Amino acid sequence: MRLSCISLFITRSLLCMPILLSSVAIGQEQDLPASTGPLPIEQTTLLPEADYDLMLVGGGLATCSSMSGRSCSDQAKFSKLAKTSNAYLLHPTTLQLFAGAELFTAERASLQQQLVTLFNSLPQGKLLTESQLVEQWRSFQATEALTVSGEELWQLLSDRELNAVLDYLEVPTLSADGKYRLTEQVDLAQTTHAESAELYRQFVQLATKKAQAKGREQAKVLVVTASSRDPFAAVDFYLDAFRQAGAAAQWLPLTAALQRAITAQNCAALPQYLANIHGSYRREQIYADLFTSKQQLCEKGSSAVVALIADADGIFFNGGDQSLTYQALRHSDGSASAELLAILEAVKQKRLLVGGTSAGTAVMSGSQFFADDTATTTVPMISNGDSYHALQYGAKAAAAPWPGCRKEQRCPDEMSERQLTFTATGGLGLFPLGILDTHFAERGRQARLLVLQQATQTKLAFGVDEATALLVDLSLQAEGIVQLKASGAAEVYISELLPESTPAALLADTYSLNAGDTAVWQQGKITLFPTEDKTKLVNSAEPLQSKSPLFSRDHYRSLSHSLCRSNFAAATVSEPPYLIRVSKVDSCYQSADGKLSAKQRLRIITE
Q1: Percent helix, strand and coil across the chain, each to the nearest 5
Q2: β pairing state of 505-514 and 596-606
Q3: CA distances, 250 to each of 243, 290, 311, 576 (Å)
Q4: Rounded Cα–Cα distance for residues 571 and 565 (Å)
Q5: Which of 16, 89, 207, 600 would bridge 219 by S-S if both were Cys, CB 3.0 to 4.6 A apart?
Q6: Are 566 and 539 in contact (CB under 8 A)?
Q7: What is the DSSP letter of 106?
Q8: 3-state DSSP call for residue 218?
Q9: Mean pLDDT over residues 196-217, rounded?
Q10: From CA 470, how far away is CA 464, in angstroms rounded?
């Protein structure tokens, strides 16, 4: 890579370790008159070669597995011990367990009795897949014994209740001779979405660098499934994926339930904690081997968990609910657990790569461990909500309402299920630059991020698209410098809240990075460096296109791209009561395959 002149201040000690970012940087301009068009500023900087500490994936990793054939090529094959679906059984034993379980509130207990009647009316004794069970359930017609149909009962259940019902009807998936538990198997080589498979390999490659610095060739990667309602369900998947990517992978059964059991010194109560905290039932019967591993680690105590973390080169957190992972690594008073402190110490010493996907990424935000003594603000952790509910109802520092709470009429503080909520003190605190959000463009989350930024006065926020990763090097964070890089299929979006922003007129500069693009954060400012193969887009006559509603699916990203390729200086979309304006701040840059890098301005006004 070639070097060029520097406009960012870098300390003398760094000049002996140079790498080049790019000869063209985006990020220092003000608004430009529409008649002149944006002009690039020539910049470069000398920085040490990146040694990444975090790999934050936006979720949506479409991976070929025995339970997800839609992501597989025709050549994918799995062994006879591959699990292809969960198994369910309508049998007097399972139905008796279900009938006696306290799963429904007193006000809704009649639903449970109606379900018992329904299930007793369906064919018994045959193993069913989930789709087969659901089809029989929903197609059941009302009778004299049960005056509501199966479809009506299905629609009445909340997500929490439905999951509990399925847990109680589930049975272990075993080999034909009953000796082995079937496991979900992965085939990275036959994954049709190449970028998803490559992100697993990239994580292992980066973790291997940590391993080599310790004198070993193969990376030890710990898999944490703490974000899941059922923390056992994805264990086999992640272990196989990371092993195929070249790591020595091991499950770390660290969950909110385990943390509670260790703290209470009551490992025998693990099933109860799994039910009360995760809403997960009978896992000790469905995944007996994995549950035994979890119980054994519980009995060894926190020191055993810390020892595993200290010996690891990488640790990867799965997706689901970031609040569950928060509880796995923080105590009820919000203080850091010994496990979290061990992770932080390993990251600070450059011995550990921390990764996550979806909720496993969102939970990383927070400034607890990197804030200096003069810091007056904290970086919050987003926990729930969508863009339009955020614009209408604002942000609340509260626990996220659980999916389906409306049906149970138990939404906290009468909040909508889509209320934008956040943890004011942040998540795990390993990513100090700003708020993290995931599934970003695909779920139109730009407005919810900006609303939360404004509500909490957080200068920066980062949205990561699906099958995409944000790589973070924190080596120079103490000097006010962090290196960032995008990787994967789509984009990393950075939102920089502007001082003029108000609740009635939200305003931010936004940056879009895709694979290979880098950015430097220095003393609170972002500078974007597109890859060298990108060229500046010349304004063309391509028509400006937008889809409505703008903050739905990937409509906002489509508009942003269309603006880059048009000769318009801005695009204005009216969605009463909001007026949304996206304008060019700098030139857009495009690679030969059409990927874009851009700096734009987003303004949302209440009409």
Answers
A1: 35, 25, 45
A2: antiparallel
A3: 9, 12, 12, 51
A4: 12
A5: 207
A6: yes
A7: G
A8: coil
A9: 98
A10: 7
Q: How far apart are CA 607 and CA 575, in angstroms?
A: 9
Instruction: Measure the CA–CA gap between 489 and 440, rounded to whole angstroms.
Output: 13
- Which of 98, 90, 76 shows the shortest CA–CA distance to 167? 98
> What would the pLDDT profile of 242-278 be if each residue is shown by its tens digit?
999 999 999 999 999 999 999 999 999 999 999 999 9
- The backbone torsions φ and ψ at residue 107, rounded to the nearest 5 degrees and listed phi first, read -70, -20
Close Cβ partners of 304 (under 8 Å, ≥ 6 residues apart): 297
The answer, yes or no, to whether the previous bond of 499 is cis (omega within 30 of 0) is no
**The total number of residues written for the chain in this structure:** 607
pLDDT value for 376: 59
| 3-state secondary structure (DSSP) of residue 109 | helix
Give the chain's largest Cα–Cα span.
84
Task: Quote the CA–CA distance of 253 and 86 in Å, as a whole number.
Answer: 21
Helices (H), 487-568: 555-565
Cβ-based neighbour number of residue 279 at 10 Å: 19
State the residue for tokens 């990203």.
Answer: 557
d(CA 114, CA 129): 22
The amino acid sitting at 342 is: A
**What percent of the chain shows pLDDT beyond 70?**
92
Show the DSSP H helices in 222-377 as ranges.
235-244, 256-264, 270-273, 283-286, 288-300, 302-311, 322-329, 338-348, 359-362
Provide the whole-model pTM: 0.93
Pairing verdict, β 481-488 and 518-522: antiparallel
Q: Which of 365-374, 476-485, 594-603 has the lowest mean pLDDT?
A: 365-374
Query: Residue 449 class from Cβ within 10 Å (0-12 exposed, 13-18 middle, 19+ buried)?
Result: buried
Half-sphere exposure of 471 toward its Cβ, with a 13 Å CA cutoff?
19
Tell me the two tokens of residue 41. Answer: 């500023």
Tokens read off for 279: 């809403």
Q: Is 206 helix (H, G, I), strand (E, B) or coil?
A: helix
Dihedrals φ, ψ of 289, to 5°?
Answer: -70, -45
